[in-house]
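Final report, section 2: Outcomes. Of the targets proposed, Nbr1 FW domain-containing protein is the one most frequently requested by collaborating groups, and we therefore present its record in full.
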Amino acid sequence: KYNYDLCSACFYRMGNEAEYARMDKPLSVSERLRNLNKDKRFLQLDCRFVKDLTVPDGTRMAPSTPFRKIWCMLNNGNIVWPYGTHLAWVGGDQFARQSLVKLAIPEAGFPLNGEIDVCVDFVSPAKPGRYISYWRLTSPDLQKFGQQVWVLIEVFTPPSLAPLLVSLDVPPLMTFRMLISCAGGRACSSR
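The predicted structure is given below as tokens.
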């Protein structure tokens, strides 16, 4: 069984040796992480995406716009996330300011079944198009775990106001009455 510390008297009362792992001394979080590959049934880092808090999929934005994406994540593993856990860029388009973002996790670790808001700062690419960037949590020794999250945006070129201003150019000598008559469909004179 995982997550049990028993004295020798309790150990002999509560089951057989196959159900427990014997430890002569308690292990630190980093020692437990090193043992993760040796026996996955005892310790497993995991996470589940809960929801997008900002920038929903397909958000349209202008080129070179800075923005912050925030995901809500859940520790659904059977071990605390250790201090030094990061969110790492793992594929797709790279338009974040960093490719590795350290999470605000205390030294004691992030608790089981706890939710945490994870944020990354981005700048939308300069060229129009659809862009997607994939991210995943990593342990301090950079082992990836849990569900992948992403940001999906569409960069568009906003319409320019310059052509409108040029087409509305009115000669300075026109009077209000001349503008009214031009709007009525009659030919305008330049008197």
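Residues 8-39 form one domain.
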